[in-house]
Amino acid sequence: IFARVREELAEGKSVKTSLNAGFQKALSAILDGNITTLIAAFVLQWLGSGTVKGFAQTLAMGIVVSMFTALVITRIIIYSFYAVGIRDKKFYGHAKKAEQTTVNFLGKRRLFFGISVLLIVVGFVFMGVNGAQGKGVMNYSLEFKGGTSTSVTFDKEYTLEEIDQKIVPVIEDVTGDNNVQVQKVEGTSQVIFKTQTLDLDKREAFNTAMSSQFQADEDKIATENISATVSSEMRQDAIVAVIVATICMLLYIWFRFKDIRFATSAVIALLHDVLVVLAFYVVARVSVGNTFIACMLTIVGYSINATIVIFDRIREELRTKKKNEGMDQLVNRCITRTLTRSIYTSLTTFVMVLVLFIMGVSSIKEFALPLMVGIICGAYSSVCITGALWYIMKNREGRKAETAK
Questions:
Q1: Please, are residues 67 and 34 in contact by the beta-carbon 8 Å criterion?
Q2: What does the alpha-carbon distance between residue 399 and residue 250 come to, in Å, rounded to a whole number?
Q3: Which of 7, 53, 65, 152 has the fewest Cβ atoms within 10 Å of its own Cβ atom?
Q4: What does the mean pLDDT of the chain come to?
């Protein structure tokens, strides 16, 4: 909305006219982007199970609240500023027209496509390498393959930060597991550590380390094997739900834009984002657990928004396209004009997740790091991939029509 208001001001319109146009012209993109994500949330709620259902409910609630604040609360606040006399253009993001230089994104489409293909291929190559080395295709956590739970009673109560910085590195060293999960028993000095399945030697080494380095009572150290919490049925439900959600999103975009090429381009970009983040999980050996499911579902729900904004602008500009203007010029102009909002929305989200990564505990870091990759990838695919895909399909149809004549 704010980026659109800024554009209208750059055209020389008054503040009041720019505010009205900003909210009005941004409405279709906001509705289409959020309704598309809501469709995904409803399908995940319908077909998912366990944590997937919880994710879908939270996602749907967040979308509805954010739409209400953007379209109602923000509007009231902005118009209140105007009503009390704050009417100078510089307070509303006045921009000069010289800033609107068109960038030739389509001219670099081969480079962009090559980068994307390379990133995805690297992921599959590392899958094969990891499997051949016996490390497992991905670094599955306890939720997926089970492990060992060890309850330790210390001589004093440690904070989570102290546990993460002092105790966990020792456990990683003696067990060889770099994905230790920690659970404090509130109000006591007892801490539960969940690791990969430990044999007798590693259990003894674990107990010795806890008693010698942290004065834990070795007689009170209890160990038990735990089973996987993410069943194969839950995984299958999540995959089916994502596939059905993607199909429903494709149908909605097709219906709204009256062009299957828009829908196809958006879904290909969505698949691209998921595969690139998957490649990051494989290459970086990030732990694959419940946070993996949440991260992938977040990307499915979030990354399509910037794409919808660009497609909405292309749809709008097609109605007023000049006869002597090439389709590549139009697409480049639309991507350039929506570039600032794509950057701003992605950057604000990225900063929030970066803070989670910096200040969060290990389990939060495992969620935040791939999500940051997904945010960057989503912005990249929306700006560099989707418009180019639509243009290629549009051109191909035009050539077929000319050949038929």
A1: yes
A2: 25
A3: 65
A4: 85
Round to whole Å and give the CA distance between 274 and 280: 10
Block residue for tokens 């456990």: 171
The bridge status of strand 190-195 relative to strand 147-153 is: antiparallel
> How many other CB atoms are there within 10 angstroms of residue 150's CB atom?
22
Long-range CB pairs of 9-12, under 8 A, 24+ apart, other chains included? 9/89, 9/92, 9/93, 9/94, 9/95, 10/94, 10/95, 10/96, 10/97, 10/99, 10/100, 11/97
Q: Which two tokens stand for residue 348?
A: 């604000």
Nearest-angstrom CA–CA distance, 220 and 240: 45
CB atoms within 10 A of CB 234: 19
Residue 369, CA atoms < 13 Å, CB-side half-sphere: 16
SS3 223: strand
Instruction: Convert the pLDDT of each residue in 309-339 to its tens digit.
Output: 899 889 888 888 777 778 888 999 899 888 8
pLDDT surpassing 90 at residue 102? no
What one-character-per-residue DSSP string does 373-402 give? HHHHHHHHIIIIIIHHHHHHHHHHHHHHHH
Residue with tokens 């366990």: 50
Q: Residue 317 to residues 253, 310, 325, 329: CA-CA distances in angstroms?
A: 18, 11, 11, 11
- DSSP summary character for residue 88: -
Distance CA(99)–CA(238), nearest Å, equals 45
Q: How would you label 320-353 residue by residue, b for 16+ Cβ within 10 Å and e otherwise?
A: eeeeeeebbebbbbbbbbbbbbbeebbeebbeeb
Give the distance, in angstroms, between the CA of residue 221 and the centroid of all CA atoms in the same chain: 40
CA–CA separation, 387 vs 394, rounded Å?
Answer: 10
| CA 120 to chain centroid | 17
- Which amino acid is residue 198, in one-letter code? L
Q: Report whether 43 contacts 132 (CB < 8 A).
A: no
The CA-atom distances, in angstroms, between 46 and each of 31, 35, 55, 58, 229 are 22, 16, 12, 14, 21
- H helix and E strand count, the chain: 17, 4
Q: Based on the number of CB atoms within 10 Å of its own CB, is 180 exposed (0-12), middle (13-18) or buried (19 or more)?
A: buried
Nearest alpha-carbon partner for 305 in 345, 276, 271: 345
